[in-house]
Design brief:
The protein is an all-alpha fold and 447 residues long. The protein folds into two domains: 1-156, Serine Threonine Protein Phosphatase 5, Tetratricopeptide repeat, CATH 1.25.40; 279-447. The chain contains 23 helices and two strands. The protein has helices at 15-29, 35-45, 50-61, 69-80, 86-99, 103-116, 121-133, 137-147, 158-171, 175-188, 193-205, 209-219, 229-243, 247-258, 273-288, 297-306, 316-326, 330-343, 349-369, 373-380, 394-410, 414-427, 439-445, and strands at 2-3, 9-10. A two-stranded antiparallel ribbon has the order 1-2. Helix 16 crosses helix 17 and helix 22 (414-427) packs across helix 23.
């Protein structure tokens, strides 16, 4: 019998394969660019290891790309045909639920796995990921606090658990706990991107913008070999600059860091959901401030049009709409809404999120672009309380709140503007008057 680095029993053929599994898990937890190659090495070391196929399926699902569902299902079928222990079979059940469009069931299975095996990092981290993108930070906090007693600093992966503790508590407003855990994780490993990211969120929510810029600048030299989470950290850097009204600095980061337009590589820039959200939300925020962004919307719009009908990532839908409307692709914008309406007719948990949150938000973005601000407010107002179900952090969700408050001002709806300001004040200790997206509204209604 073989075990992973956390002491969980593995169905693998050799100690070499067990070490390859640990290497792949470490890459996944630490957001390393070569994680796919690490998984390939594990599969090569032991093609009959069931968790190798499970990981292949889960990694395909992590992309929230409908085109990869077949790959995930194929990996699951291979896993199910292999001998496996009960924990590994539970992982197969979770992947099956995720593929079938019931990620809420997958969350429950991962919770069951970690209840029995608190050091199962694959189950823990997949749960953390999916709970976040389902707008369930309460479940993120509950799970991390349940597993913490089973961990110690001398166990491999402890820093990654601390990093998740940081982000989970940040998203539920426990900033002191969050920052302490994140800084602990970075002290253990300065290259821990998820921990750096969690602390950046704390600094964003508390309005500590200069500290945020220093935090990212100090850690950036450690990020060589990281994956696209680096783009999101640079997006955070741009968010701090946005609040400082350094719009030229924001565009420089857009072009040289998180969208990398100045490189020939930008022509093949991925349409991965988080990269799209980074880019579209930043251009949209700049547009609200009257900053000209040139032709930057074009490549995003091309990717948006190619992905119409792929509704796996609910939060990405209004971002696709931002790109389509910014480039005048009204016919494509109509098709996006039609496809979203069709997907929202289902009777699944995800369909309800599309129906009750993604669709109103995406319609509101389209109305806003057309100057139909009264209709934008009417579309989005009933959904405001449920926007968190789209997934995304408070910092990311803020762009949809800005759609609402901007339309409220332009439609002459001071009551709705005040509503937006009250929501902003409840989410962050920073007064709306000190936040660039809400300052104009605060002055207008005397908030």
């Amino acid at each position: 019998m073989h075990q992973d680095a956390q002491g969980n029993t593995l169905t693998v053929a050799s100690a070499e394969a067990a070490r390859a599994f640990d290497h792949a898990i470490e890459g996944f937890l630490k957001y390393r660019f070569d994680t796919g190659l690490r998984l390939k090495a594990f599969l090569t070391a032991d093609p009959t290891a069931p968790l190798g196929q499970v990981m292949a399926g889960c990694f395909a699902m992590l992309a929230y790309d409908r085109g990869l569902l077949g790959r995930a299902a194929g990996a699951l079928a291979k896993a199910q045909a292999l001998p496996a222990n009960p924990r590994e079979k539970a992982h197969m059940a979770a992947l099956s639920a995720w593929i079938d469009g019931t990620p809420e069931k997958a969350l429950s299975i991962w919770e069951q796995i970690t209840a029995e095996h608190p050091r199962d990092l694959l189950a823990f981290r997949l749960h953390h990921f999916c709970a976040f993108w389902m707008g369930a930070p309460d479940r993120m906090v509950t799970l991390v606090e349940q597993v913490m007693p089973g961990w110690a600093e001398d166990v491999a992966g402890y820093g990654s658990v601390l990093a998740c503790r940081c982000f989970a508590h940040e998203e539920t407003g426990s900033y002191t706990i969050a920052e302490y855990a994140g800084r602990q994780a970075v002290a253990l490993d300065p290259a821990d991107l998820w921990a750096a990211h969690g602390v950046a969120h704390v600094l964003e929510m508390q309005g500590r913008r200069s500290e945020g810029l220093d935090w990212i600048a100090a850690l950036e030299p450690n990020w060589e070999g990281g994956n696209n989470l680096m783009h999101h950290l640079w997006w955070h850097q741009a968010m701090f600059l946005m609040e400082h009204r350094d719009f030229a600095g924001v565009l420089h980061l857009y072009d040289t860091r998180f969208r990398n337009r100045d490189s020939k590589v930008h022509l093949a820039q991925p349409d991965l959901y988080i990269d799209v959200q980074n880019a579209a939300s930043m251009l949209f925020r700049l547009g609200l401030r009257g900053v000209a962004v040139g032709d930057r919307w074009g490549e995003l719009a091309e990717k948006a049009e190619a992905r119409i009908g792929d509704t796996l990532s609910a939060f990405t839908q209004p971002h696709w709409m931002m790109a389509l409307t910014a480039t005048g692709r009204w016919e494509a914008a109509g098709r996006l809404l039609t496809a979203l309406e069709e997907a929202a007719r289902g009777n699944t948990h995800h369909a309800r999120i599309l129906r009750e949150a993604a669709l109103p938000a995406t319609r509101a973005v389209a109305f806003h672009a057309e100057g139909r601000h009264d209709e934008a407010c009417a579309a989005l107002r009933p959904a405001l309380g449920g926007l968190h179900r789209l997934g995304g952090s408070h910092a990311q969700q803020d762009v949809l709140e800005q759609v609402f408050v901007d339309s409220a001002l332009k439609a002459g709806r001071p009551g709705d503007a005040r509503l937006a300001l009250e929501r902003a004040a409840a989410k962050s200790p920073v007064a709306p008057a000190r936040r660039i997206g809400f300052a104009e509204a605060a002055l207008s209604v005397g908030f």
